[in-house]
Amino acid sequence: MKTALTNIYPYSIRKEYMQTNSHTALRMALLLIAALLVTLVAGCAKQDSGQKVGGTADAAAKVYVAPGSYDDFYAFMSGGFSGQVSVYGLPSGRLLRVIPVFSQDPEKAYGYCEESKGLLMTSHGFIPWDDAHHPKLSQTNGSADGRWLFINGNNTPRVARIDLKSFETEETIEIPNSSGNHASPFITQGTEYVVAATRFSLPIPNRDVAIDSYKENFKGTISYIKVDSATGHMNIAFQILVPGFNYDLSHAGKGPSHGWSFFTSYNSEQANTVLEVNASKNDKDMMAAVNWKKAEEYVAAGKAKTWKTQYYHNYLDEGRWARSEVMNEVKVLDPKDCPGMIYYLPTPKSPHGSDVDPSGEYIVAGGKLAALIPVHSFSKMIKAIENKEFEGDIEGIPVLKYESVLAGEVQNPGLGPLHTEFDGKGFAYTSMFLSSEIVKWKLGTWEVVDRMPTYYSIGHLLIPGGDTRTPFGKYVIALNKITKDRYLPTGPELTQSAQLIDISGDKMQMLLDFPTIGEPHYAQACPASLLTGNSIKYFNIADNKNPYAIKSEAEAGVKREGNTVHVYMSTIRTHFAPDNIEGIKAGDKVYFHVTNLEQDWDVPHGFSIIGLNNSELLVMPGDTRTILWEPKAPGVYPFYCTDFCSALHQEMSGYVRVSN
Amino acid sequence: MKLVSANTATGGGSTSTRWLSKESDTSMTRSSRILVIVAALLLSLTYYFPLWKIDLIAPQYPEGLGLRIWINAIGGQNEGDLQRINRLNHYIGMKTIEPDSIKELKIMPWIMRGLMLFGVVAGLMGRRRILLAWIIIFLLMSVAGLVDYYLWGYDYGHNLDLENASIKVPGMTYQPPIIGSKNLLNFKAISLPDGGGYAAIASILLAMAVYIREFYYAKTRLIR
């Protein structure tokens, strides 16, 4: 049993148990006893897991997608510390594509070719990596509309927009006056805004102060990024300056609660060291309810102050070339000047997830250290605001009474509630990190009706459309942090994992495990039919506005400008033009502008040359990509097509002669 | 009843000579005239649908690949197919198909207009022998078109630039059939009439049916 306990209980909490004062120790002891009980239950459950999986043939039939057939859903999973987004088919769990977003990807020349480098620019310079957490599909009237996917970069605060016709990152925007961009990019029901918020509060504007002056100097911001409904282009409409708590997750209201966003926060203690202990002292932390329509009115009324700052806005122009704009100011609203814009809802205990049910009435908080799941009521909140049922105020933000806004509490749900999704049939599904399970409970009665163990330590979970007004309550996917013995071992670094569970019946049924890229945080899924009809097969060469594009082989050639050489190169099955290049000198900067003249589905051509201190190019039909090569010594340098393109692919090669 | 009378009629030698005489080329019935005009107007569909199609079937082309031969153009099953087929054909040394240099595509719309006009006139005049003339010209034009199509296919399929062809299969030629299917390396080529072609076939069949109907009808009328 001791082994089991060690396995299920993370080191950090065991350490905490040993180090903290007696009051905390008592609570931790109680938690441990609870964990022990759950371990017993989970232990039994694991022995039963064969039965829970159901007939293997039955489960297999439910996830079998015959060769050549399509999956029913697209799932977009955050790549976590890979910085990317992975696209899976459901129910098969087949990996369809990895979309590079915040990290360079040499396979696709993303962040290497001249056209894409600008997307990774920030006020800190070029950054080849970030930590991508929460993909969000664009919405119309509270349902996924299949236009764009947004995702946050947590480390250097950014939000990216991916176009779902090309499945490519088209835009990134840096968030000033922030860090740890975790509660992002949760979207409003008409894609009016995507949001960003500060998890690691800072001196704002950032400056050289003592770290232990946290309570005095550190603040957070909640940012509203306006999304242009035609182009998808983002710009930061305003930021709200908030007390220096750790703003963690969010969801926007929908239906009756449209116009509001709800942000959980922890560390209301405002600790700046050993947060695992010092930020876990208060029984309740604060969920911020932001009335963003009111905030818009305050901005329109001139209540916002314009602050000098610097951040980057990067987007593909009409030539699909990433342009970087440096922005120098941002509008900031202070709650003190804006009554009625933001309220705090006390919420037990270091709450993580902030999830709004399909009706828009219930706001579920995942109190990750709480022994219950609190559910707030939007209508009660509005009433409490009208009746001024406040228990106090924090830096000008009224704090509502817990009892006045509470709809109900799910008692004894398990341990470590994190995130909740909804099936549209009146049930909610909450992930339990510590007890490693999904708990199904009923909205309104708050009773637990089913449990499914997950392997192991579930973080987020996903129901297709499960955070929208129109869930497709067919599957829930557990996105697990730890796999240990679930797959063939691959040394110390193991895959992360998703588990597909059937929720079409009364009882959950485990169907499938499949590995994921990086650490999966949040994910989104939508019916395949929403996207399949719009997916681009190739770029029309006539519409190619890349400044270095050529429209036919006749335009191919080499132009020298001082020490810079531009090679205008075309590819078509199965040759490069030009394919013998002379007149290059050692020390030249040689730009290969490769235009793929193909106008055929799935015929990309690749390009690389010996000794290229850079990635390959992979050029889609009708597109142009540019890579820089700086030859250092005279000689003859072969280049070739890196993507098997035709029967004569091996012949698709050429030479560059470099002279002194 | 009519059939019986008709058979009786063929028995009399005098009937046929009278039919050949000028006064026997009587006006057709009103319904026949309308049908002839309908047959002529059916040809207008050849402006909206291709005459012929050649589909190239291969596993790598789930989206389909093929040529569509229009009255005045050569297009593809999908946009860009002509370019794709030309790219494929360069491997076997086939000439590039350039619709601009095919003079038939400039002539055919005029021939079709002429046929339609002739058909409408035949219907309006309602003279059986003019209808017969239309049918004969129509058939001659169709045969000429198919022969031209065959020769065109023969030229592209046989006159290959073997000097610059990457893929050379001894004895292999690449002429697509006029109707039917044939394996051309990794492709199965299927050649069939398309919407416009079927419209033309329907048109001539209708015209012939009207002619036959009038032929027998006139005979029975003579006997009466």
Please characterize this protein's 3D structure.
- The complex is a heterodimer of chains A (660) and B (224).
- Chain A is 14% helix and 42% strand.
- Chain A is mainly β.
- The longest helix of chain A is centred in the first third of the chain and has 26 residues, at 22-47.
- Chain A is globular and about 80 Å long.
- By secondary structure, chain B is α+β, with helices and mostly antiparallel strands.
- Helices cover 54% and strands 11% of the residues of chain B.
- A 5-stranded antiparallel β-sheet of chain B has the order 3-2-1-5-4.
- In chain B, strand 2 (66-69) and strand 3 (74-76) form a beta hairpin.
- In chain B, helix 1 packs across helix 7 and helix 6 (128-158) runs antiparallel to helix 7.
- The model of chain B is unreliable at 1-23 (pLDDT under 50).
- The A-B interface holds A 572-573, 598-601, 647-648, 651 and B 63, 80, 83-84, 87, 91, 166-167.
Keywords for this structure?
heterodimer; A: 660 residues; mainly beta; 10-stranded mixed beta sheet; 5-stranded mixed beta sheet; 12 helices; 42% strand; disordered N terminus; B: 5-stranded antiparallel beta sheet; 7 helices
Look at the helices and sheets of chain B and give the structural class.
Answer: alpha+beta
Tell the overall outline of chain B.
elongated
Low-pLDDT runs of chain A: 1-22, 41-51
Helix content of chain A: 10-25%
Distance from first to last alpha carbon of chain A: 74 Å
The total strand number of chain B stands at 5
User: How much strand of chain B?
Assistant: 5-15%
Tally of individual helices of chain A: 12
Number of strands of chain A: 44
Largest interface: A-B, 9 and 8 residues
